[in-house]
């Protein structure tokens, strides 16, 4: 589905979409827990494309966000198809799919023997009483950024280290390269609003989800204005996202469109509910 790793900044007017401007192409690798995932990001004039690559380097899936038209395009290279929808429609689709995939507690317990069902209900009531009787929304974490003073060269760019702390505890370490100005290709206000709609469609708690919920309202947003994150390491040191190559060049309009030979699908078909 959808995964999110960084946040963004600075305005490009709509007029720029009809003019030639230099965009950015960034290759990065995510490693952790015995897996490796390669991605390529392209950004130019209020458009962003994230491509997930197969082990052999061929594209597997792409996610294209157009801030001017406020649309999302999901490209599936395996079955040579794509789906384009308004961000709001896409978020509603995600919410609907999650509701169908997650049955209610009553539904989950309907086939339980009466004695086991009573036991589960009693445990649930006990836990709710201990925690204050009614469920609360995800708490917002207090996120802080702390520059460490460390410097390194990553993917050929000078980068500076920052610690990301959530409620006083270190969550991750982020290396920022000021000379990679990719986020300046995107309007931060539009990006914040649209990405908030998408991330809020995915339930969950924890520092990362809290930051999504407060997208642009915490200190994590400030790092995007400092440059691009060329390396991010979680607090355990096991999950790492690192840029391997970044270059700026003018990108053709076709870069942010699905291949012309691919077949269009609607949202229902993309979710596997079509004919």
Question: How would you characterize this protein structure?
Answer:
There is one protein chain. The protein has 275 residues and is an alpha+beta fold. The chain has one domain: Lipoprotein localisation LolA/LolB/LppX (outer membrane lipoprotein receptor (LolB), chain A, Clam). Helices cover 25% and strands 36% of the residues. The chain has seven helices and twelve strands. A twelve-stranded mixed β-sheet has the order 7-8-9-10-11-1-2-3-4-5-6-12. Helix 1 packs parallel to helix 4. The protein is globular and about 50 Å long. Mean pLDDT is 78; it is low at 1-20, 126-136 and 206-218.
Give descriptors for this structure.
275 residues, alpha+beta, outer membrane lipoprotein receptor (LolB), chain A, twelve-stranded mixed sheet, 7 helices, 12 strands, 25% helix, 36% strand, globular, disordered N terminus
Outline:
This protein has 275 residues and is an alpha+beta fold.
Write down the domain tally.
1
Number of strands: 12
Q: Roughly what percent helix?
A: 10-25%
Provide the CATH topology: outer membrane lipoprotein receptor (LolB), chain A
**Low-confidence runs of at least 5 consecutive residues:** 1-20, 126-136, 206-218
Estimate the strand proportion: 35-45%
Task: Write the CATH architecture name.
Answer: Clam
Structural class: alpha+beta
């Amino acid at each position: 589905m959808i995964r999110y790793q960084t946040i963004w900044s600075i305005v490009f007017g709509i007029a720029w979409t009809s003019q030639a401007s230099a965009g950015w192409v960034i290759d990065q690798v995510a490693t952790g827990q015995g897996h490796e995932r390669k991605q390529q990001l392209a950004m130019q004039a209020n458009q962003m494309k994230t491509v997930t690559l197969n082990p052999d380097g061929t594209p597997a899936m792409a996610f294209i966000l157009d801030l001017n038209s406020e649309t999302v395009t999901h490209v599936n290279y395996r079955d040579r198809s794509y789906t384009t929808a308004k961000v709001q429609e896409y978020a509603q689709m995600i919410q609907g799919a999650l509701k169908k995939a997650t049955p209610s507690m009553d539904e989950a317990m309907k086939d339980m023997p009466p004695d086991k069902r009573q036991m589960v209900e009693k445990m649930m009531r006990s836990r709710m009483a201990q925690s204050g009787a009614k469920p609360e929304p995800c708490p917002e974490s207090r996120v802080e950024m702390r520059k460490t003073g460390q410097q390194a060269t990553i993917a050929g760019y000078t980068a500076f280290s920052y610690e990301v702390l959530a409620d006083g505890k270190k969550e991750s370490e982020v290396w920022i390269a000021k000379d990679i100005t990719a986020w300046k290709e995107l309007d931060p206000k539009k990006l914040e609003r649209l990405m908030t709609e998408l991330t809020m469609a995915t339930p969950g708690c924890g520092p990362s989800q809290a930051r999504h919920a407060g997208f642009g309202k915490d200190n994590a947003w400030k790092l995007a204005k400092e440059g691009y994150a060329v390396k991010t390491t979680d607090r355990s040191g096991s999950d790492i996202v690192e840029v391997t190559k970044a270059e700026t060049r003018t990108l053709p309009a076709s870069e942010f469109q699905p291949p012309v030979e691919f077949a269009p699908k609607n949202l229902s078909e993309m979710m596997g509910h079509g004919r």
